[in-house]
């Protein structure tokens, strides 16, 4: 499994990705409001910032998981590992507790 497959799996089987994106977008919108009017980002720029943050987050999750399960294992083995160890639930809780101002 690679980072993109992990992201797709978590997106289909949990709220981790959608919750992270929603929280990150709210943070970026608030940050954007504090910018000078002429320097405010448009929606495309905000979307790119959220995409970049999501990619960084998912790479971090992948790196942590790959310490426990080899990246060359099948997607089914990864899914079993994630389900058996309740990784998605833990990630959802972690995302809920993230304070973007401290991140």
What does this protein look like?
The protein is an all-alpha fold. The chain has 5 helices and no strands. Helix 2 packs across helix 3. The radius of gyration is 15 Å and the shape is elongated.
Shape: elongated
The helix fraction, in percent, is over 70%
How many DSSP E strands?
Answer: 0
For the record, give the distance between the C-alpha atoms at the N and C termini, rounded to a whole number: 27 Å
Question: What average pLDDT do the residues reach?
Answer: 93
Sketch the major β-sheet: none
User: Which residues form runs of ≥5 with pLDDT under 50?
Assistant: none
What share of residues are in beta strands? under 5%
Taking all Cα atoms into account, the compactness measure Rg is: 15 Å
Order of helices and strands: HHHHH
Secondary-structure map with pairings?
Blueprint: H1 3-13, H2 16-33, H3 43-66, H4 75-84, H5 87-97
Helix pairs in contact: 1-3, 2-3, 2-5
Offer a quick outline of the entry.
The protein has 103 residues and is mainly alpha-helical. It has helices at residues 3-13, 16-33, 43-66, 75-84, 87-97. The chain is elongated, with a radius of gyration of 15 Å.
